[in-house]
Amino acid sequence: MLTHSKGGLHPGRPGVYNRRMELTIRRHSPEIEADFFRLHSRENDHDWCFCAPWHLDDWCDFEKRSARENRVVRERVHAAGGHDGYILYADGEPAAWAQVFERDSLPLVARTFGLKPDPGAWALGCFFVPPRHRGKGLNRKMLDLILADLKQRGAERVEAYPRRGESLDVLDLWRGAEGMFQKAGFRVVREAERWAVMVRELN
User: Fold this and answer.
1) SS3 at position 61
2) Which parts of the chain register pLDDT below 50?
């Protein structure tokens, strides 16, 4: 578990900090599954995907899937011991989620972006911050803490797959923003009009 203190944003005054906020990151585990579902909930307007996409065989008709179908995938992943990510806590409350896994463990990633097998690569599959916590820079701080923890775990490199395009909204940024990865030291190694594959070496 890694911690960091960060100033909290002043309500109604974007960019103005008025207190210290303790941020703690925890690897996903059976003990915090309930917090995963607290984040992926109707209250947070995020009760459809349940971070299921990369566990599927392909993207065929994905947008037609029901929330129940996706939740069943997530429940099966948990039941099989798959805890593929991190939860960020702000002052002890779940405030953000990132899906993180050994890239070759979920083949859809390599098929989607035309990548060769790489046992040393970890993947940043998605990011989610509830509406009430947006605008506080939590994704970037979570990313920094994840990279530090992955280095401790012996990961050689980390990949990200941001979308590209004009006028991207928050729903388009579920794989993270390209600018955030650039600032964190990632470099583009493969790209197309609508996406990029970016890598950060950890050794």
Assistant:
1) coil
2) 7-18
* Sequence-ordered list of residues with C-beta below 8 angstroms from that of 175, at least 6 positions apart, any chain: 124, 125, 126, 127, 160, 161, 162, 163
Place of tokens 């996409």: 53
How far from the centroid of its chain's Cα atoms is residue 122's Cα? 12
What is the pLDDT, as a whole number, of residue 15?
Answer: 38
CA distance 36 to 152: 23
Q: Could you tell me if 23 and 96 are in contact, meaning their C-beta atoms sit under 8 angstroms apart? A: no
pTM for the predicted model, two decimal places: 0.90
> How many angstroms separate the CA atoms of 188 and 60, rounded?
27
Measured CA to CA, the distance from residue 18 to residue 109 in angstroms comes to 41
State how beta strands 157-160 and 121-128 pair: parallel
43, 169 Cβ separation under 8 angstroms: no
Helix or strand holding residue 68 (H, E): helix 67-79
CATH 3.40.630.30 matches 2-201: yes
Compute the Cα dihedral for 177, 178, 184, 189 and give only its sign.
positive
Tell me how far apart the alpha carbons of residues 137 and 120 are, in angstroms, rounded to a whole number: 28
Domain extent listing, the chain = 2-201
Q: How far apart, in whole angstroms, are the C-alpha atoms of residue 115 and residue 113? A: 6
- Report pLDDT for 12: 41
